[in-house]
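quick one if you have a minute, typing this from the bus. theres a chain ive been looking at and ive put its sequence and its fold in token form underneath. please have a look and point out which stretches look like helix strand or loop to you. anything you notice is useful, everything is just below.

***
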Amino acid sequence: MNESQLADWHERALSIEIELGKTVLGQAHVIRMLTVAVFARGHVLLEGDVGVGKTTLLRAMAQMLGGGYERIEGTVDLMPGDLLYHTYVADDGRPRVEPGPLIRGGDALSVFFFNEINRARPQVHSTILRAMAERRANAFNREYELPHMLVFADRNRLEREETFELPSAARDRFLMEITVEIPEDPEVLRQLMFDTRFHNVDRLLGSLLSPLLSYSELNRVAEQIQRQIGASETLQRYAMNLVAATRDPGANGIRLSETDDGDLVRAGVSPRGMSMLMQAARVIAWLAGRDHVVPEDLQAVFRETVAHRIVFHPVYEMQRAHLLDDFMDQILAKVSAP
């Protein structure tokens, strides 16, 4: 792929953000992070309140990509096989078995939405995590290739009854964790309440330009982005220092009130997380029209690619929501940028 072709993809990526902005108002940062995930080819954890537009946004993204979209709801009685097949009794009274949501779209599947993944049991998590890592699944005595699939998993953060939180090793498989909040702008809220365009999701999605990308080419484009966007030695040292601060905050002068600095963090960013941080930063640089990464690119994706990989000591893990923002802020403030 030459520079002209990559520049064309750059323009189309920005067009996607414009179109997505027409479906979910007041979520420019979320849309930018989803665009980064698409071009970094990384899976995403989503967290947010009910009814903030996560499903609409993902349906619109799948429409932009031109690939298949599938969704499954996490429930306490969901079984691993429910991802792969479903059974029913046909009109003739005989049992039938059909492919499930993970494999029925075959290699055309581009977006798989696992809603409320923390309501599903660990056995189900294992099945989807394996499909994420290998981009393939086995069913009906054959192997189904899923080369273009990105998994977006939503965690219910309001209701904790009958939930099974993802362990740290599972969270580390996701490129990002993106929080989708209710917009604060009164004008945005007024439009969402009174503008009838937003009252019918199907009609709203039907008004978008689509598809703007070819899902089957994204892997090739993503690889080219990673090859063409450079990172200087100075930038590399800065990235390494940011990562080191997640493992040994005390050595970087990071102090959180009411915590023992030497016993705050049990695990920082993994080598896989380090790689994903740089992949995301390169995409940010590409979207900005640069051929090299600058410190601001790392800072732009640092929270989303790093925060969910931090494991606090059990004493402090219960205060995670309270401590994490301050922890991320201090790392970015106290690690000197070139």
Observations:
- The mean pLDDT is 91.
- The longest strand covers residues 109-115.
- The longest helix spans residues 3-23.
- The chain has two domains: 3-216, 229-334.
